[in-house]
Design a protein that fits this description.
The chain is of the alpha/beta class. The chain has two domains: 168 residues, Rossmann fold; 97 residues, Rossmann fold, CATH 3.40.50.1100. The chain is built from eleven helices and ten strands. β8, α9 and β9 form a beta-alpha-beta unit. The protein starts with 11 loop residues before the first strand and ends in a 9-residue tail after the last strand. Bound molecules: pyridoxal-5'-phosphate.
Length: 281
């Protein structure tokens, strides 16, 4: 039985004003339209479906907030328990509200995301527990679906793909999804990975770093680094110019375009990863 809340099949929106601004053909893959408001739902559906098949009773994850909201919702849907490890004070309030609303248990730890992840790995080593971070291969498999949708929606691959770069799992998923029809990849990270306002990408040690660097090199792209001011400005620009309200991390791709990652009429897809209502400010 598939554990689903109706994830995926998200809109690919034209962005006429931002297209004119950058001299490109820009499309927004609007992942805030997923059931819990971020792309995490795509992979969670697959990971939780597999966990149920394997007889698990408890899902465990470490999270900056969106994996938490997604994990807890799909656990409730499947009739499983969810234990969510977060760094104290690091996850946006509305994301924790989402977890509590569906009965997830929140465990707070001091330190960085890596400390939270280590704690989650320890909890998940107990029998009947499954870790549903992006190191779970079923997460990546599910997230691939976004690239397949883009191929369907556009009829061909774009020239350029840009998206926020936190742990890098989503960059890997898109590369797998596009297969041998890869666009040029421009993952965008926060200059201050430890303290950025973009809490969804506040990850000091990206667990998929080696793969992300390989994908960027293979496609002739680059890893773009932007500061918090650029992220905030991009978030405002996306809202005011195109009517799309996203959380700060989700505007990283637009911040990258401001820095000139695409030009000359290129067809660009910017992945807008999560909803603005999640940010709580
Ligand atoms: C998880 C998340 C990211 C980062 O994705 P990675 O796969 O960790 O690189 C970016 N934006 C939002 C809204 C997220 O929830």
């Amino acid at each position: 039985m598939t554990i689903t809340l109706g994830e995926g099949r998200t809109p690919l929106l034209e962005a006429p004003r931002l297209s004119a601004r950058y001299g490109i053909e820009l499309w927004l893959k609007w992942e805030g339209a997923n059931p819990t408001g971020s792309f995490k739902d795509r992979g969670m559906s697959v990971a939780v479906t597999r966990a149920v098949e394997d007889g698990a009773h408890t899902l465990v994850c470490a999270s900056t907030g969106n994996t938490a909201a997604s994990c807890a919702a799909y656990a409730a849907r499947a009739g499983l328990r969810a234990t969510i490890v977060v760094v104290r004070g690091a996850a946006a309030g509305p994301k924790l509200t989402q977890v509590r609303a569906v009965g997830g248990e929140i465990v707070e730890v001091d330190g960085t995301f890596s400390d939270a992840f280590a704690h989650a790995e320890r909890l998940a080593s107990e029998p009947g527990h499954v870790l549903v971070n992006s190191t779970n291969p079923h997460r990546i498999e599910g997230q691939k679906s976004a690239a397949l949708e883009i191929l369907e929606q556009l009829g061909s691959p774009p020239d350029v793909l840009t998206l926020p770069y936190g742990g890098g799992g989503n960059t890997r998923a898109y590369a797998l999804g596009f297969g041998d029809r890869l666009p040029r990849f421009h993952p965008v990270q926060a200059a201050d990975r430890a303290g950025t306002v973009a809490s969804a990408i506040r990850i000091v040690e990206p667990v998929h770093r080696v793969d992300v660097e390989e994908i960027v090199a293979r496609t002739g792209g680059s890893i773009v680094t932007v500061d918090d001011e650029q992220i905030a400005a991009a978030r405002d620009l996306l809202g005011r110019e195109e009517g799309v309200f996203c959380e700060p991390a989700s505007a990283a791709g637009i911040a990258g375009l401001e820095r000139g990652t695409a030009s000359g009429g290129e067809r660009v897809v910017c992945v807008v990863t999560g909803h603005g209502l999640k940010a709580g400010a």
